[in-house]
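Design a sequence for this backbone.
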């Protein structure tokens, strides 16, 4: 199995990490199965590849996980697809003499900065992929544990090299002959032994220390694949890579290169029947290890994703059906499913991340999990795509619970009256919630528009007590004297009644016209919209939020800005969010154990967050209403609302962010998460800090689940049923 090893960018223990893994592999490989370690192309970059037999995979993966935190492993194809116009040129390197030691990673030092340098930086530079992608370079180091006879012979040779000869010329001749592959030279070395004596007081040489430890029988191939018409370029690249290995030569041992061999890319390499050279684990680790953090090479593969160990006891939707599913844990080889309990869900969830990083996929998984569990849910989507995905995944048993509120629907609109008073609610709260929506959408404030807000507040307080009133009645209240007298007679609030009888009626006609015209100008931009008139003009309304909460129904609100317009979408969404808050607080007339959970998900929630949104976050938990809020970047949220989110939200999930948001959001996860972690998250990966049993758990990484496939006609069937149950045209 060929595995690509993506090591962390800040990992500086590369050779030490590989050395420990090799020692474990040596001991766990009594059958002497070959393992191939490659430096070469991984997708469009250069990185580490390991070809490990299936018998050794478990040991290899376990050692990798323990020795290299943050390592990510991906499976590569076994072979490169063959093409007729490509050929592979190979040059073999052999350590001569192999009983002597190479220059190891401990001996490399930057002479200028006096710091240890990475010897593989030159090799990675030589292996860089070509810009066209037609030139593929690989270095393959295949090794297996040395046989007992080979190791004993190497140790005997190293011991003989410790002997003292009568002259330096004899010592040099003996070294060259006894380390040779030729039998005649080794026989000649045996004849020179009587001219030497043991050196008992001599310290062990590097060769003896090498041969007394673990050894691998190895062979090293450099391969360059390119079109058949690029032979000169191939030879230049082979020479460049072979030259890069010259830096590993010591005063005693060096790499000898064979001639260039060219073969078709589809033809497998010849069996290695030649004598293999010996390498120790430290020498192999010098030739093959993760690059240091300061290595700057073109297209060098690095894993920028930091490893975060998850908490020990995570809620698992596979064992507990009441847990809302979020995704799977991303930690080493651990891929357990993870979710959020209903009790912790009531403390709200905040999801942030760039567009296209996986927020909608996460929301879809949560919504589908809640719908399957039979809970009441509401989704407010300003785009519409997530609504379509949810509709396709509604179980048949819950078809009658779905209310599709498509604000852009022309023939069969679902209507909504924000001035309708839920049972157990105060009319003043209803009027104030609608007023906060207009303040949010119009950008009104008491300091900038005091008189306009004064008129609008009294108008709303009047209309909430008038039967059959809607938001379209505001203009009639301001301009129709007869309607205004009728509405004023029904008002129970003496201060509001006094406004109409004493203050409003005494204004000069010119002043009254100017004051009213300012309000009409702002309201007219919305209330003259035909789509909003269809939705907001029905006094009875077909969407009753309190009833939906108590009956565990499914409310899907499609506020697609592309079909409805951005400003109408913001106004209607703000009215719905404020009405949801009012409906939730009206549950005060119901004992808490009897309140059924209702889960609200709002995508791009900053468009609908009014001034009272902070109180919704802080108080809705008591009324069994839980919020899941999602947006793209933090600057979209005003500081007051952002402070309320950070102060009240229990669970936090972050997909990939920009530099500014990474700096802001990283402290919310604790010191285990840095801004670079959030900045380099891959697609569909989220850094997560969950509330578990009421306590914040340590952060970890999760991956979202791909949505399951569904029948194509399921969404249309749900639309049809919802239209017949909730559209005003079928009443």
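Sequence:
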């Amino acid at each position: 199995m060929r595995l690509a090893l993506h090591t962390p960018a800040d990992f500086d223990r590369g050779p030490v990490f590989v050395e420990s893994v090799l020692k474990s592999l040596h001991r766990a490989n009594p059958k002497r199965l070959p393992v191939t370690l490659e430096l070469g192309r991984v997708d469009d970059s250069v990185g580490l590849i390991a070809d490990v037999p299936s018998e050794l995979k478990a040991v290899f993966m376990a050692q990798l996980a323990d020795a290299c935190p943050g390592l990510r492993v991906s499976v590569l194809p076994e072979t490169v697809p063959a093409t007729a116009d490509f050929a592979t040129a190979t040059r073999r390197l052999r350590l001569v003499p192999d009983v002597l030691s190479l220059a190891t990673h401990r001996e490399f030092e930057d002479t200028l900065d006096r710091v240890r340098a990475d010897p593989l930086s030159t090799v990675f530079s030589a292996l860089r992929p070509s810009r066209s992608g037609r030139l593929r370079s690989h270095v393959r180091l295949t090794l297996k544990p040395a046989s007992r006879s080979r190791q004993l012979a190497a140790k005997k040779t190293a011991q003989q090299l410790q002997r003292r000869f009568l002259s330096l010329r004899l010592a040099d001749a003996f070294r060259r002959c006894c380390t040779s592959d030729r039998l005649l030279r080794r026989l000649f070395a045996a004849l020179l032994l009587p001219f030497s004596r043991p050196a008992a007081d001599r310290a062990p040489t590097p060769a003896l220390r090498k041969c007394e430890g673990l050894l691998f029988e190895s062979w090293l191939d450099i391969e360059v694949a390119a079109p058949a018409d690029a032979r000169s370029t191939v030879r230049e690249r082979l020479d460049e890579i072979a030259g890069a290995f010259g830096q590993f030569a010591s005063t005693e041992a060096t790499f000898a290169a064979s001639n260039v061999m060219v073969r078709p890319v589809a033809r497998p390499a010849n069996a290695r029947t030649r004598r293999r050279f010996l390498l120790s684990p430290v020498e192999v680790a010098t030739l093959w290890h993760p690059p240091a953090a300061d290595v700057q090479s073109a297209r060098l593969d690095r894993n920028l994703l930091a490893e975060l160990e998850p908490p020990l006891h995570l809620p698992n939707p596979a064992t507990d059906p009441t847990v809302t599913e979020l995704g799977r844990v991303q930690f080493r080889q651990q891929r357990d499913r993870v979710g959020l309990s209903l009790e912790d869900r009531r403390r709200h969830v905040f999801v942030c991340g760039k567009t296209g990083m996986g927020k909608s996929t996460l929301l879809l998984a949560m919504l589908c999990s809640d719908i399957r569990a039979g809970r009441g849910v509401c989704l407010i989507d300003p785009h519409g795509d997530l609504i379509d995905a949810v509709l396709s995944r509604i179980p048949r048993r819950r078809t009658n619970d779905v209310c599709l509120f498509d604000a852009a629907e022309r023939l069969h609109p679902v209507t909504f009256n924000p001035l309708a008073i839920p049972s157990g609610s105060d009319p003043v709260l209803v009027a104030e919630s609608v007023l906060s929506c207009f303040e949010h959408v119009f950008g009104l404030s008491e300091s900038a528009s005091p008189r306009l807000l004064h008129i609008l507040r009294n108008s709303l307080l009047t209309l909430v007590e008038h039967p059959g009133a809607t938001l379209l009645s505001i203009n009639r209240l301001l301009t129709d004297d007869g309607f205004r007298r009728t509405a004023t007679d029904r008002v129970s609030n003496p201060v509001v009644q006094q406004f109409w009888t004493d203050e409003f009626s005494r204004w000069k006609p010119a002043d009254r016209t100017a004051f009213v015209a300012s309000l009409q100008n702002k309201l007219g931009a919305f209330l003259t919209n035909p789509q909003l008139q269809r939705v907001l003009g029905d006094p009875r309304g077909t969407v009753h939020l309190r009833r939906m909460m108590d009956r565990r129904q499914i409310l899907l609100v499609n506020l697609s800005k592309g079909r409805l317009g951005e400003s109408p979408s913001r106004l209607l969404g703000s009215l719905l969010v404020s009405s949801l808050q009012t409906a939730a607080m009206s549950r005060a007339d119901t004992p808490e154990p009897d309140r059924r959970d209702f889960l609200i998900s709002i995508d791009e929630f900053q468009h609908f967050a009014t001034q009272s949104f902070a109180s919704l976050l802080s108080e809705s938990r008591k009324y069994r209403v839980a919020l899941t809020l999602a947006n793209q970047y933090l600057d979209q949220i005003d500081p007051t609302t952002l402070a309320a989110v950070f102060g009240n939200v229990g669970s936090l999930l972050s997909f990939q962010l920009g530099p500014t948001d990474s700096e802001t959001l990283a402290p919310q996860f604790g010191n285990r998460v840095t801004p670079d972690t959030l900045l380099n998250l891959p697609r569909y990966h989220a850094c997560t800090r969950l509330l578990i049993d009421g306590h914040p758990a340590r952060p970890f990484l999760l991956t979202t689940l791909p949505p399951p496939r569904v029948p194509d006609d399921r969404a249309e069937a749900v639309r049809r049923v919802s239209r017949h149950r909730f559209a005003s045209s079928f009443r």
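The radius of gyration is 37 Å.
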